[in-house]
Amino acid sequence: MTPVAGDTYFVTTAIPYPNAAPHVGTAFEAIGTDVVARWKRLTGCEVFFLTGTDEHAEKVSKVAADRGITPQELVAEMADVWRDAWAMMEISEDRFIRTEDEDHKHAVAKFWKRVRDKGDIYLGSYEGLHCMPCESYWTETQAKGAVCPECGRPLEILKEPAYFFALSKYQKPLEKLYSENPGFLLPEFRRREMEENFLKPGLQDICVSRTTIHWGIPVPDDPAHVIYVWFDALVNYLTGAGFGTDEKRFEKWWPADLHVVGKDITRFHTLLWPAMLMAADIPVPKRVFAHGFVHVVSDEDAGGEGVKMSKSLGNIVTPGDICEKYGADALRYFLLREIPYSGDGNYSERHLARRYNSDLANDLGNLVLRTLSMIERYFDGKLPAGDRRDVVDWNESDKGLRAVAEEMAETVPALMETLSFSQALESIWSLVRGANRYVEENKPWTLAKGREQTERLGAVMYNLAEACRLLSIWLAPFVPGTTRKIREQFVLDDTDATFEERVHWGGTKPGTVVRKGEALFPKLDLPETEAN
């Protein structure tokens, strides 16, 4: 369903720790969320897209100490590194939030006081298992063998005075949330995991302050404690919406429409976070989507299972390296076409190069280049009026191409709503392949040899230009740089129309003088054994 005027959409990524530069695994989340934001803007929503960095982690202070600088110096430096990486990948965030931002510190203090005044934060003593890299607490039942269930590292025994959040108090409200809102957590199998592994065994109160570390936001009225990094970081979503600083803005944007997070932090976002919001009498987010991991496989073992990409494992592939070599759109396309967003998938440079050549260079790039070249050659660069039925009757080939476009228009919106990006791209590619097939079926180069075929040639070239116009719209959330080039070359100016009007067949304007440019994706020179 297309939004109506005035509809808003607030979408967020999780905010990663900036103890190191981003890798392709973290880029996977940002790119997918950016596609959601661009799709919603495309279909008529006013969008607020929030991303940023979670700076008050113990691991951040340890990295700073190792480098001989302050945590503040480290996070200021790394925030620029992350911003630059996101800009390189064309992430279209509306705000890049840092948990060192003053409005965020203010929002966290206000939120803490509200929950404490309700009686849901109390002082006690913590003794138990803690995972420093994950910044998570575990019970002996959850962490068998004193090993972190998320990352597999040994847990440390932690003992210190601490404030606790009364998470157990929200057992029943969370059960109700899950039962009454089955779409709150997607994909559905993640919801079942949360219910079976955490809700059903029973929730326990959680430690929400530290005294053994000093890097963080001080607890209001008790500065010997700093607020636990997760209790701090989750509030960033409220900060971005205006909580504590701009109530009119907050009323406009909250609750968030969608949090996009990694599967390893699902329980924080779908158990702790909604309970925190309930305690503060703030509406819970409408939906959380937990995506999978990008696994690294060597080029020699591109069919293998691979291992999760992570800074701590030292198997990092940086988005900057890939973007410089292949372009941002190649990375965006490969990750979202190759890896189902709800699950895990493999990354190898060899496979990316193959996808680049087969899908982007051979299929899409070749379609656009030869369509423009033939319009230039046969019609002096001016789009013919080939869609007029009183000029030329539609044959089965014409009808078939239009049918592919119309079927795609029916399929893609539903897939986008469930973040089924790989399937959406497959559907869009049906038009790419259909248009290339249409060229071979109609052989414009043969039509051009007979003067009596001029009208038919015009119809063929119009239909190809129309397919390219539609692709420039449907692909815009995925490969924004590429679609800008397509629109520039076909001189398209239809952004004042509604989304439905834009994606309806027949929007190409006859008489437009096209501007053929360079190939969108110059073909890579791969070894013959890797070409296919």
The fourth-level CATH homologous superfamily of the domain at 349-530 is Isoleucyl-tRNA Synthetase, Domain 1
**Strands side by side in the biggest sheet:** 3-2-1-12-13-7
CATH architecture level-2 label of the domain at 349-530 = Orthogonal Bundle
Shape: elongated
Oligomer: single chain
Largest sheet: 6 strands, parallel
Number of strands: 16
Helix tally? 19
Strand content: 5-15%
CATH topology type of the domain at 349-530 = Isoleucyl-tRNA Synthetase, Domain 1
> What's the alpha carbon Rg, rounded to whole Å?
26 Å
Alpha-beta content class: alpha/beta
So what's the CATH class of the domain at 349-530? Mainly Alpha
Distance between the termini: 39 Å
- The average pLDDT score comes to 90
Summarize the amount of helix as a percent range.
40-55%
**Low confidence ranges:** none
Describe what this molecule looks like in 3D.
This protein has 532 residues and is an alpha/beta fold. The chain has a domain at 349-530: Isoleucyl-tRNA Synthetase, Domain 1 (Orthogonal Bundle). Helices cover 47% and strands 14% of the residues. The protein has 19 helices and 16 strands. The chain has a six-stranded parallel beta sheet with strand order 3-2-1-12-13-7, sandwiched between helices. A four-stranded antiparallel beta sheet has the order 5-4-6-8. The chain is elongated and about 90 Å long. 45% of the residues are buried.
